[in-house]
Amino acid sequence: MEVTLQKWGNSQGIRLSKSLLKDLGITTEKATFEVKVKNKELILKRKKESKLAQRFEGFDYEAYWDKWDNEHPGESKEVDWGKSVGKEIKW
26: burial class by Cβ within 10 Å (0-12, 13-18, 19+)? Predict the structure, then answer.
């Protein structure tokens, strides 16, 4: 398959056909790619969508707070953001 580099606003772009995207398993309008140039060749590598749950997969919540308690004995976990300002002040 050949594609053509075309002017697109102030940039240039390459359009990918619907059938090519289907073959890649891309069904959403938005997809993110990593772009590299290697030996004067353009390489596009699709980045997997990262969901929040995946980012915290394997995270040990209890171990995190146990470590925090050991490093900050007797301190509150709450953050003091200072006095209320603006519309957050209740009338």
Answer: middle
Predicted TM-score of the model (pTM): 0.45
Beta bridge partners of 38: 41
Q: Does residue 35 contact residue 43 with C-beta atoms inside 8 Å?
A: yes
User: Which amino acid is it at 51?
Assistant: K
Helix (H) or strand (E) segment spanning residue 62: helix 61-71
Q: Write the burial class of residue 25 (CB in 10 Å: 0-12 exposed, 13-18 middle, 19+ buried).
A: exposed
Residue 82 has pLDDT above 90, yes or no: no
Alpha-helical runs (H) found in 5-89? 18-24, 52-55, 61-71
Bridge partners of 12, per DSSP, are 7
